[in-house]
Amino acid sequence: MSFIEVKNIRKSYDGHLALKDLSFSVEKGAIYGLLGPNGAGKTTFIRILNRIIVYDSGQIFFDGEPLQQKHINRIGYLPEERGLYRKMKVAEQIIYFAQLKGLTYGEAFRRTKKFMKKFDMVTWWNKKLEELSKGMQQKVQFLITIIHEPDLLIFDEPFSGFDPINQEMLKSEILELHRHGKTILFSTHMMASVEEICDSILLINNGEKILEGDIHEVKQQHKQNLYRIIYSSPDAQFVENEKFIVKGKDSGQYLVQVSEKEDTNTLLQYAMRFGEIVHFEEVLPTLNEIFIQAVQNSNLKTVEQ
Q1: Would 299 be classed as within a structural domain?
Q2: 75-101 residue pLDDT tens
Q3: Does a structural domain hold residue 288?
Q4: Which residues have a Cβ under 8 Å from the Cβ of 104 and sit 6 or more positions away?
Q5: Strand bridging mode 208-214 / 244-250
Q6: Same-domain pairing of 76 and 209
Q7: Residues 38 and 17 sit within 8 Å (Cβ to Cβ)
Q8: pTM of the model
Protein backbone atom coordinates (compact mmCIF):
# COMPACT_ATOMS: atom_id res chain seq x y z
CA MET A 1 0.00 0.00 0.00
CA SER A 2 1.40 3.39 -1.01
CA PHE A 3 1.58 6.01 1.73
CA ILE A 4 2.94 8.67 -0.61
CA GLU A 5 2.07 8.57 -4.31
CA VAL A 6 3.53 11.17 -6.66
CA LYS A 7 2.21 11.54 -10.20
CA ASN A 8 3.84 13.72 -12.87
CA ILE A 9 4.89 16.58 -10.61
CA ARG A 10 6.32 19.61 -12.41
CA LYS A 11 7.79 22.73 -10.83
CA SER A 12 9.63 25.61 -12.45
CA TYR A 13 11.35 28.74 -11.16
CA ASP A 14 11.81 31.68 -13.52
CA GLY A 15 11.89 29.43 -16.57
CA HIS A 16 14.07 26.74 -14.93
CA LEU A 17 12.31 23.39 -14.72
CA ALA A 18 13.25 22.06 -11.27
CA LEU A 19 11.04 18.94 -11.43
CA LYS A 20 10.09 17.27 -14.70
CA ASP A 21 7.07 14.96 -14.51
CA LEU A 22 8.39 13.25 -11.39
CA SER A 23 6.46 10.09 -10.46
CA PHE A 24 7.11 7.52 -7.72
CA SER A 25 5.47 5.94 -4.69
CA VAL A 26 6.56 5.20 -1.13
CA GLU A 27 5.07 2.17 0.61
CA LYS A 28 3.59 2.55 4.06
CA GLY A 29 6.19 1.75 6.73
CA ALA A 30 9.16 1.91 4.34
CA ILE A 31 12.46 3.75 4.70
CA TYR A 32 12.79 5.35 1.28
CA GLY A 33 16.01 6.99 0.11
CA LEU A 34 15.58 10.19 -1.91
CA LEU A 35 18.94 10.67 -3.60
CA GLY A 36 20.58 12.96 -6.11
CA PRO A 37 23.46 15.40 -6.58
CA ASN A 38 23.24 19.00 -5.44
CA GLY A 39 20.61 20.85 -7.43
CA ALA A 40 18.84 17.69 -8.56
CA GLY A 41 15.45 18.76 -7.18
CA LYS A 42 15.33 16.84 -3.88
CA THR A 43 14.80 19.86 -1.64
CA THR A 44 12.22 21.30 -4.05
CA PHE A 45 10.18 18.12 -3.78
CA ILE A 46 10.51 17.98 0.01
CA ARG A 47 9.28 21.56 0.28
CA ILE A 48 6.34 20.70 -1.98
CA LEU A 49 5.47 17.72 0.21
CA ASN A 50 5.51 20.01 3.26
CA ARG A 51 3.34 22.55 1.39
CA ILE A 52 6.04 25.19 1.78
CA ILE A 53 5.88 25.77 -1.98
CA VAL A 54 3.23 24.84 -4.56
CA TYR A 55 3.86 22.66 -7.60
CA ASP A 56 2.75 23.69 -11.09
CA SER A 57 1.04 20.47 -12.17
CA GLY A 58 0.61 16.82 -11.24
CA GLN A 59 -0.83 15.07 -8.18
CA ILE A 60 0.38 13.98 -4.74
CA PHE A 61 -1.58 11.56 -2.58
CA PHE A 62 -0.97 11.27 1.16
CA ASP A 63 -2.26 8.06 2.75
CA GLY A 64 -4.80 7.66 -0.05
CA GLU A 65 -6.01 11.29 -0.10
CA PRO A 66 -4.92 14.27 -2.21
CA LEU A 67 -2.25 16.13 -0.21
CA GLN A 68 -3.88 18.88 1.87
CA GLN A 69 -2.94 21.31 4.62
CA LYS A 70 -4.54 19.02 7.22
CA HIS A 71 -1.86 16.39 6.54
CA ILE A 72 1.00 18.65 7.66
CA ASN A 73 0.49 17.76 11.33
CA ARG A 74 1.12 14.12 10.35
CA ILE A 75 4.56 15.02 8.96
CA GLY A 76 7.81 15.51 10.84
CA TYR A 77 10.47 17.39 8.85
CA LEU A 78 14.15 17.67 9.74
CA PRO A 79 15.52 20.17 7.18
CA GLU A 80 19.12 20.35 6.02
CA GLU A 81 19.17 24.03 6.98
CA ARG A 82 18.19 24.00 10.64
CA GLY A 83 15.80 26.68 11.89
CA LEU A 84 15.63 27.12 15.67
CA TYR A 85 15.50 30.18 17.94
CA ARG A 86 18.95 30.72 19.43
CA LYS A 87 17.80 32.86 22.38
CA MET A 88 14.97 30.52 23.37
CA LYS A 89 15.36 27.86 26.07
CA VAL A 90 15.51 24.24 24.88
CA ALA A 91 12.40 22.82 26.61
CA GLU A 92 10.39 25.96 25.91
CA GLN A 93 11.31 25.67 22.23
CA ILE A 94 10.41 21.98 21.94
CA ILE A 95 7.03 22.57 23.64
CA TYR A 96 6.35 25.52 21.33
CA PHE A 97 6.98 23.54 18.14
CA ALA A 98 4.96 20.59 19.47
CA GLN A 99 1.99 22.92 19.99
CA LEU A 100 2.37 24.18 16.41
CA LYS A 101 1.86 20.56 15.35
CA GLY A 102 -1.44 20.33 17.20
CA LEU A 103 -0.53 19.11 20.70
CA THR A 104 -2.00 20.72 23.80
CA TYR A 105 0.45 22.43 26.16
CA GLY A 106 0.04 19.64 28.71
CA GLU A 107 0.70 16.87 26.20
CA ALA A 108 3.60 18.80 24.66
CA PHE A 109 5.14 19.26 28.15
CA ARG A 110 4.70 15.57 29.00
CA ARG A 111 6.30 14.36 25.76
CA THR A 112 9.13 16.88 26.02
CA LYS A 113 9.98 15.60 29.48
CA LYS A 114 9.81 11.98 28.30
CA PHE A 115 11.95 12.46 25.19
CA MET A 116 14.54 14.70 26.86
CA LYS A 117 15.01 12.01 29.48
CA LYS A 118 15.31 9.33 26.79
CA PHE A 119 17.98 11.29 24.89
CA ASP A 120 19.87 12.31 28.06
CA MET A 121 18.97 15.98 27.57
CA VAL A 122 17.32 16.78 30.93
CA THR A 123 20.19 19.06 32.04
CA TRP A 124 19.59 21.20 28.94
CA TRP A 125 16.01 22.05 29.99
CA ASN A 126 16.64 25.73 30.81
CA LYS A 127 19.66 26.27 28.56
CA LYS A 128 19.37 28.64 25.64
CA LEU A 129 20.04 27.05 22.26
CA GLU A 130 23.07 29.32 21.67
CA GLU A 131 24.73 27.77 24.74
CA LEU A 132 24.77 24.33 23.08
CA SER A 133 27.28 22.85 20.65
CA LYS A 134 26.21 22.27 17.06
CA GLY A 135 25.76 18.54 17.71
CA MET A 136 23.62 19.22 20.78
CA GLN A 137 21.50 21.65 18.75
CA GLN A 138 21.01 18.90 16.18
CA LYS A 139 19.60 16.61 18.87
CA VAL A 140 17.11 19.32 19.82
CA GLN A 141 16.07 19.66 16.18
CA PHE A 142 15.65 15.89 15.89
CA LEU A 143 13.46 15.78 19.01
CA ILE A 144 11.30 18.59 17.60
CA THR A 145 10.89 16.54 14.41
CA ILE A 146 9.53 13.47 16.21
CA ILE A 147 7.81 15.00 19.29
CA HIS A 148 4.30 14.91 17.78
CA GLU A 149 4.78 11.26 16.71
CA PRO A 150 4.06 11.86 13.00
CA ASP A 151 3.18 9.15 10.49
CA LEU A 152 5.66 10.45 7.90
CA LEU A 153 9.18 11.53 8.83
CA ILE A 154 11.37 13.43 6.38
CA PHE A 155 15.08 13.57 7.19
CA ASP A 156 17.18 15.83 4.95
CA GLU A 157 20.90 15.25 5.65
CA PRO A 158 20.11 14.18 9.23
CA PHE A 159 23.72 13.30 10.15
CA SER A 160 25.10 16.75 9.37
CA GLY A 161 26.96 18.09 12.41
CA PHE A 162 26.88 14.81 14.35
CA ASP A 163 29.98 13.01 15.58
CA PRO A 164 30.18 9.23 14.90
CA ILE A 165 28.66 8.34 18.29
CA ASN A 166 25.63 10.56 17.78
CA GLN A 167 25.33 9.39 14.17
CA GLU A 168 24.89 5.86 15.49
CA MET A 169 22.38 7.10 18.07
CA LEU A 170 20.35 8.84 15.38
CA LYS A 171 20.54 5.82 13.08
CA SER A 172 19.28 3.61 15.91
CA GLU A 173 16.37 5.98 16.57
CA ILE A 174 15.42 6.05 12.88
CA LEU A 175 15.34 2.26 12.82
CA GLU A 176 13.24 2.21 15.99
CA LEU A 177 10.75 4.61 14.38
CA HIS A 178 10.66 2.25 11.40
CA ARG A 179 9.91 -0.70 13.68
CA HIS A 180 6.96 1.28 15.05
CA GLY A 181 5.49 1.54 11.56
CA LYS A 182 6.55 5.05 10.63
CA THR A 183 7.10 5.88 6.96
CA ILE A 184 10.47 7.57 6.45
CA LEU A 185 11.78 9.66 3.58
CA PHE A 186 15.56 9.82 3.92
CA SER A 187 17.70 12.21 1.89
CA THR A 188 21.49 12.20 2.24
CA HIS A 189 24.77 12.06 0.33
CA MET A 190 26.09 9.38 2.71
CA MET A 191 25.54 6.30 0.53
CA ALA A 192 26.83 3.91 3.18
CA SER A 193 24.01 5.00 5.51
CA VAL A 194 21.48 4.59 2.69
CA GLU A 195 22.66 1.01 2.08
CA GLU A 196 22.45 0.30 5.80
CA ILE A 197 18.95 1.55 6.56
CA CYS A 198 16.88 2.11 3.40
CA ASP A 199 14.53 -0.41 1.77
CA SER A 200 14.22 1.34 -1.60
CA ILE A 201 15.70 4.37 -3.34
CA LEU A 202 14.85 7.00 -5.89
CA LEU A 203 17.71 8.76 -7.68
CA ILE A 204 16.91 12.01 -9.46
CA ASN A 205 19.11 14.28 -11.55
CA ASN A 206 18.20 17.55 -13.24
CA GLY A 207 14.67 17.16 -11.88
CA GLU A 208 14.09 13.75 -13.48
CA LYS A 209 13.92 10.20 -12.16
CA ILE A 210 16.92 8.23 -13.43
CA LEU A 211 16.85 5.20 -11.13
CA GLU A 212 14.36 3.63 -8.72
CA GLY A 213 13.78 0.38 -6.87
CA ASP A 214 14.58 -1.98 -4.04
CA ILE A 215 18.25 -1.56 -3.09
CA HIS A 216 19.07 -5.26 -3.53
CA GLU A 217 17.40 -5.33 -6.94
CA VAL A 218 19.15 -2.13 -8.02
CA LYS A 219 22.53 -3.62 -7.11
CA GLN A 220 21.70 -6.83 -8.96
CA GLN A 221 20.73 -4.83 -12.05
CA HIS A 222 24.07 -3.03 -12.04
CA LYS A 223 26.36 -5.93 -11.21
CA GLN A 224 29.32 -6.53 -13.51
CA ASN A 225 29.85 -10.27 -12.95
CA LEU A 226 32.79 -9.67 -10.63
CA TYR A 227 34.01 -12.25 -8.13
CA ARG A 228 36.58 -12.12 -5.34
CA ILE A 229 38.77 -15.20 -4.95
CA ILE A 230 41.17 -15.60 -2.03
CA TYR A 231 43.69 -18.44 -1.95
CA SER A 232 45.29 -19.90 1.17
CA SER A 233 48.72 -19.21 -0.32
CA PRO A 234 49.77 -15.65 -1.26
CA ASP A 235 51.84 -17.20 -4.07
CA ALA A 236 48.82 -18.70 -5.88
CA GLN A 237 48.71 -17.55 -9.50
CA PHE A 238 45.31 -17.37 -11.16
CA VAL A 239 45.72 -17.53 -14.96
CA GLU A 240 43.15 -15.47 -16.84
CA ASN A 241 41.68 -16.37 -20.22
CA GLU A 242 39.01 -15.01 -22.57
CA LYS A 243 36.25 -16.17 -20.17
CA PHE A 244 37.77 -15.03 -16.86
CA ILE A 245 39.49 -11.64 -16.84
CA VAL A 246 41.57 -10.51 -13.85
CA LYS A 247 40.55 -6.99 -12.82
CA GLY A 248 42.71 -6.82 -9.71
CA LYS A 249 45.11 -8.91 -7.67
CA ASP A 250 47.06 -8.71 -4.41
CA SER A 251 48.92 -11.52 -2.60
CA GLY A 252 46.74 -14.47 -3.48
CA GLN A 253 43.57 -12.37 -3.82
CA TYR A 254 41.97 -11.91 -7.22
CA LEU A 255 39.10 -9.87 -8.57
CA VAL A 256 37.82 -11.70 -11.64
CA GLN A 257 35.23 -10.68 -14.20
CA VAL A 258 33.26 -13.47 -15.84
CA SER A 259 31.81 -13.38 -19.34
CA GLU A 260 28.01 -13.48 -19.24
CA LYS A 261 27.99 -16.93 -20.86
CA GLU A 262 29.81 -18.52 -17.93
CA ASP A 263 28.26 -19.38 -14.57
CA THR A 264 29.67 -19.20 -11.05
CA ASN A 265 30.35 -22.94 -10.73
CA THR A 266 32.45 -22.91 -13.90
CA LEU A 267 34.62 -20.12 -12.50
CA LEU A 268 35.00 -21.87 -9.15
CA GLN A 269 36.04 -25.14 -10.76
CA TYR A 270 38.55 -23.32 -12.94
CA ALA A 271 39.95 -21.28 -10.03
CA MET A 272 40.56 -24.43 -7.96
CA ARG A 273 43.26 -25.48 -10.42
CA PHE A 274 45.59 -22.83 -9.02
CA GLY A 275 45.40 -23.54 -5.30
CA GLU A 276 43.23 -23.98 -2.22
CA ILE A 277 40.44 -21.39 -2.08
CA VAL A 278 39.54 -20.00 1.35
CA HIS A 279 37.08 -17.34 0.20
CA PHE A 280 34.87 -16.94 -2.86
CA GLU A 281 32.15 -14.30 -3.31
CA GLU A 282 30.33 -12.24 -5.87
CA VAL A 283 31.21 -8.55 -5.65
CA LEU A 284 28.23 -6.26 -6.17
CA PRO A 285 28.71 -2.56 -6.86
CA THR A 286 28.30 -0.17 -3.96
CA LEU A 287 25.43 2.27 -4.00
CA ASN A 288 28.01 5.04 -4.26
CA GLU A 289 29.41 3.52 -7.47
CA ILE A 290 25.91 3.11 -8.91
CA PHE A 291 25.05 6.70 -7.95
CA ILE A 292 28.12 8.15 -9.69
CA GLN A 293 27.66 6.08 -12.86
CA ALA A 294 23.93 6.80 -13.14
CA VAL A 295 24.42 10.55 -12.71
CA GLN A 296 27.27 10.62 -15.22
CA ASN A 297 25.16 8.73 -17.78
CA SER A 298 22.24 11.09 -17.14
CA ASN A 299 24.42 14.15 -17.67
CA LEU A 300 25.78 12.73 -20.93
CA LYS A 301 22.24 12.19 -22.22
CA THR A 302 21.34 15.76 -21.27
CA VAL A 303 24.35 17.12 -23.19
CA GLU A 304 23.51 15.00 -26.23
CA GLN A 305 19.95 16.28 -26.26
Answers
A1: no
A2: 999 988 777 899 999 999 999 999 999
A3: no
A4: none
A5: unpaired
A6: yes
A7: no
A8: 0.88
